[in-house]
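Notes to self after the call with IL:
- keep both proteins in one doc
- input above output, always
- annotate only the second one for now

Protein 1:
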Amino acid sequence: MSATDFSPVTLDAMQDYLALFARTPRRASDYSFTNLWGWAEHYGLEWRFEHGLCWLRQTLPEVRYWAPVGPWGDIDWASCTCLGKGMEFIRVPEELASLWREVLGDRGTVQETPGQWDYLYDAADLADLKGNRFHRKKNHVNGYAKAYGIDYHPLTPDCIEAVIEMQEEWCQWRECAESESLLAENEAVIRVLEEWDSIPGLVGGALYAEGRMVAYTVGEALDDETLVVHFEKGRGDYRGVYQAINQQFVQYEGARFRLVNREQDLDDEGLRKAKQSYYPVDYLRKATVRIAPV
């Protein structure tokens, strides 16, 4: 694939992408349009629509190809000219990696990348926090409720300005300017929030205490049974606020879902410990796949 075949991710082609994403057999959080749009500038994301698929690549800090999006099972991979010259793909869901290995044989090598695996949780577990495993989480929620009360509201277009204001304040508290990763995340959050009315399917919730917003969550449906959490922020001076917004969001917005996808840990030990503390029931596994030329 030549450099001229790709163009930047834009809102103009969003519906074309969403149609292919809906036909993708395994939908990882990375590939939701929300994620692509939020991180488009940071990664220099580009796409190309060809062979019944959307091909994705990042151009920053270097060119890396992501897994294609669309109906993988409808493609004749063995004769696909797009793979003929040999390529390397990152963030490849294991279902596609297995398909490529089966069809391409020795041409395909697969290396698991656990830092990119999506954490999957039982939605009822996160909403109810029942049993000894979640005793400490439940105590944090109860402590927050006792101190501040539970005042939860779904996010609607008229409160997005307040969410942006809280996000910008959070970024100041966390000194985002001193952290490249936090600064990049802040930019991704703002990009998504500013297009709240344009990106279909976004859902969210916020907690209020003492007359102000103290936490918010933004997510969306990945498929019929999975709700993904893209962003979650709380005011750290409200003890238990993160446990409370986590529980409330799933209770109210996740009632019709079986699973909650809370994205990756990116090999960050602190993040990994936090995600594991909620006892994932499974992972959406991903890998790097290298395909040798014909």
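Protein 2 (the one to annotate):
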Amino acid sequence: MVRIQTVLGLLIALTLPFVLEDYDLYRFTDAIVFAIAILGLNLLTGISGQFSIGHSAFFAIGAYTVAMLTTEWGMSPYLALPFGAVSGFVFGFLFGWPALRFSTVHLALATWGLALVVPRILKAPPFDAFTGGVQGIYLDRPGPPFGLPLSDDQWWYLVSLLIVVLSAFLIGNLMQGRIGRALRALRDHPDAARTMGINVALFRTTAFGVSGAAAGLAGGLAGLLADFVAPDTYTIFLGIALLIGAVAGGIDTLRGAFVGGLIVEFLPDAAGIISKTVSFPVYGLLLIVLVMLMPYGVVPGLDRLWQRLSGDRSQRPPPPLS
């Protein structure tokens, strides 16, 4: 069933650039970018059990890395994007190491503080020669190569789709492999995992690094799509939105990241359609209803509904995180 959903979803995704207008396609490309960042959160929170509401900071670090490499050093955006992921990994790993001593509540406060301080650092006078200060940096996004008969939006949608598929493949292998099993053991039974010889510091900081890499890659891609990066784009609200997407989509599933990206991009629009004057409270109400109807997220909720309709009782919904 999962393979059928994956193939069907990929076929629909490949059809979109040829049936949608450029602006609508740009919105779906934005949703793909959010899905890349949410993939990292699913590994960090859903599999590792570590909590972060500050991934907007890693998003910003990746965006500025790509922006400075392309504008100051003249590097190709295609070559700069991997460096955005590398910068996110380095900062995530360095942040995750001291965070090992934090409890869940203190880790949430630490990531909150990280999300607040990074935009201010990017605007600080000592760094504005590199970051552009409050005015940000304008990027020059290249068009389709080799004379391909595609618009800019079509081309970058396909590039983003390729990146998210590769990201899902790599993170999926981590989740299902030795690292994923070790992280689940540390999440569910940390004392037992330690007695089995699992290196707590290494695995948890690696999870933070990989999650930061996904956010950095997404940030760099988002900056290229917008042709602009600025500190006020990467506020704490972006970090909260990414966490909302991860939880609402399905915090420990790969498919949930794609649904989460759509939720982050389009659910505020749905709230605005219902009521333009009080769209933010309506957005919160829609989230509450969604969580009440599908407490494990949209993807696990739909899987459970399918099992009931098909009479398949072989699989059960995932247990809540400890």
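Annotation: Residues 317-322 have pLDDT under 50 and may be disordered. The CA atoms of residues 101 and 107 lie 9 Å apart.
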